[in-house]
Amino acid sequence: MRVGACGLNYVDALMCAGGYQIKPQLPFTPGSELAGTVTATGKDINDLKAGDRVLTRGGFVSVVARPRSSIYPIPNALTEGQAATLWQSYSTMLFAYARASLSADQTVLVLGASGGIGRAAIDLAHSRGARVIAAASSDDRLKSCGEVFGHINYSLEDLKVRARELTKGDGVDVVVDPVGGDLANTALRALDYMGRYLVIGFAAGSIPQLPVNQILLRNRNVIGIDWGAWSGSHSQEQENNLRTLLTMAERGSITPPEPQAYAFEEAQTALDDLMNRRVVGKAILVP
Ligand SMILES: NC(=O)c1ccc[n+]([C@@H]2O[C@H](COP(=O)([O-])OP(=O)(O)OC[C@H]3O[C@@H](n4cnc5c(N)ncnc54)[C@H](OP(=O)(O)O)[C@@H]3O)[C@@H](O)[C@H]2O)c1
Fold first, then answer.
1. Three-state SS for 285?
2. Dihedral Cα 175, 82, 144, 166, nearest 10 deg
3. pTM of the entire structure?
4. pLDDT tens for each residue of 137-150
């Protein structure tokens, strides 16, 4: 397979910086998702041919050989860039919303809404008929999130106060938090009765301490999401989830954002931009 796009994720940057919970042995090739074109197939393969557009797992490489079982055709509705950035963010949020039992007409507050997890959270919430309040650090970042039920610029507005205003005093049913830091405490207080708080990540750099009395009050739930570990131990379920996502994309019920492209040689700049809030949406490396 000749690779046309390597998906970039925050986790790749963390891993390169030695800040991720999994510390690979050096030297290693960062990256985890690839999209491109089949150049040749093994003699027993008769359902794929040279020229087909496909998706697979793998680090930042320009050419790769993979077993048939780990290659997935890209639906016509997706560009290579969209396909290369779907795997981690969308799989995480599909898994997370299943854990949270998100249903139609519920309201989801998405922090870091213009980032990779954030955009997947918005798209998948809409596909379930839920309402989205997108929260981010600037109006420009909020603009990139497209049409949503409500916006919160958390550099200027209080998350809890604004989320309650937008929900006529009730609060939200689900919080998606890939950011952590100081926002977590106020986002927890924005939850309605039986609300679910999804702990996804700590892009802000610090791990929040949540007040347990606020979890007790209103019968709230805090749910840890470790998609990486889950997908490793539930490979068949993850494969089903990926196929579900590709079918949803084909039918137009999700539309992943078109990523910002960096040349292969700019990998270091791209990872640096990702770590320092200079990427809006997703990014890819183009070999
Ligand atoms: N639990 C899981 O299974 C799982 C799976 C995938 C990713 N993750 C984690 O989720 C987190 C987000 O991943 P992502 O792919 O969405 O990353 P991303 O695309 O870089 O988005 C992160 C967002 O966090 C916000 N942010 C706030 N403070 C930041 C800071 N100091 N530095 C960088 N960003 C900051 C930014 O939005 P604003 O500027 O608008 O605040 C940014 O859009 C990461 O910690 C990642 O490791 C977890």
1. strand
2. -30
3. 0.97
4. 999 999 999 999 99
What is residue 63's DSSP assignment?
Answer: B
Sheet containing 191-199: give its strands across.
150-153, 131-136, 107-110, 172-177, 191-199, 221-224
| Protein residue with its CA nearest to atom 8 in ligand 1 | 201
Residue with structure tokens 């347990």? 212
Q: According to the model, what pLDDT value does residue 19 have?
A: 87
Tokens 């960062």: give the residue: 30
| Amino acid at the residue 287 | P
Q: For residue 142, what are the contacts with CB-CB under 8 A and spacing of at least 6?
A: 113, 114, 134, 136, 151, 153
- Rounded Cα distance between 125 and 151, Å, is 15
Residues lower than pLDDT 70 in the chain: none
State residue 259's pLDDT score: 97
Average pLDDT, the chain: 96
Angle at CA of residue 122, ends 118 and 128, nearest 5°: 140
pLDDT tens-place string over residues 162-176: 999 999 999 999 999
The DSSP bridge partners found for residue 261 are: 284
Task: Decide: 226 and 201 in contact? Cβ < 8 Å.
Answer: no
C-beta of 42 in contact with ligand 1 (< 6 A): no
Q: Which residue among 117, 223, 284 has the greatest number of ligand 1 atoms within 8 angstroms of its CB, and so is best to mutate?
A: 117
Q: At what angle do helices 87-100 and 235-251 cross, to 10 degrees?
A: 100
Q: Which domains are present in the chain?
A: 2-85+257-286 (3.90.180.10), 89-228 (3.40.50.720)
Is the shortest distance between the CB of 91 and ligand 1 below 6 Å? no
Of 257, 278, 244, nearest to 81 by C-alpha is 257
**How many angstroms separate the Cα of 28 from the Cα of each of 25, 87, 198?**
7, 21, 31
